C-alpha cells in the first residue's frame, strides 16, 4: 500500500475513536449579545435530544454553547483516587449544546420562537432598559429572577474589622481659617530626602 493511503486510513481511524468535544471558538466568532441566560426554559431544535425542553444550567459564552439540566448526558470516566486506587467510577454529566440548536419558549403558546431586544423606557424612572420580545409580536419573554438567597452570605465580624461606631465617628472638622493640609512634619516625611529642592 502507498504510504499516503496508510496515513489517510490512520487519520480516519483516529478521528473516529476520539470523543466528541466542543470546538474552540475564536474571540471574533463569539456571540456578543446573548438572548439566552441561565434559568431560561428552552426547546432543543436539533440533535439527539430534539423536541425536548429543559432549563439552562450554565451559559458557556467562550464556546457559544449551553449546559441544559439533564439533557445531552454523557458518561465521564473518573480515574482511581488516592483514597481507593483500585476503584474507578463512571458518572453522567451534561455535555454542551450549541446555542444555534436551541430556542426560547413563548410564555403564552409554549412554542419555540425567535426573540430580539427592545429598549423600553420606564415611565416612573425614565431609564431605558433592554427587554426580550418575540419577533413580530408584543409578547415579552421575561428573564428568570436570580435566587438572591443562594448567593447571600451572612456577615461575620472579624477582630480586624472596624466597628460601626468607629466608622461613624467624625475625625475631621473643616475650618475656613485652616487649610486642609497635613502638618509640616508629615509633609517633610513625604518629601524625597535626596531631592535638591528639599
TrEMBL record:
HAMAP family assigned: Ribosomal_uL24_B
Domain KOW stretches: 35-62
UniProt xrefs under Gene3D superfamilies: 2.30.30.30
Record keywords: Ribonucleoprotein, Ribosomal protein
SUPFAM superfamilies to which the protein is assigned, alphabetical: Translation proteins SH3-like domain
Protein name: KOW domain-containing protein
Lineage: Eukaryota, Fungi, Fungi incertae sedis, Mucoromycota, Mortierellomycotina
Highest rank taxon of the organism: Eukaryota
Family designation: Belongs to the universal ribosomal protein uL24 family.
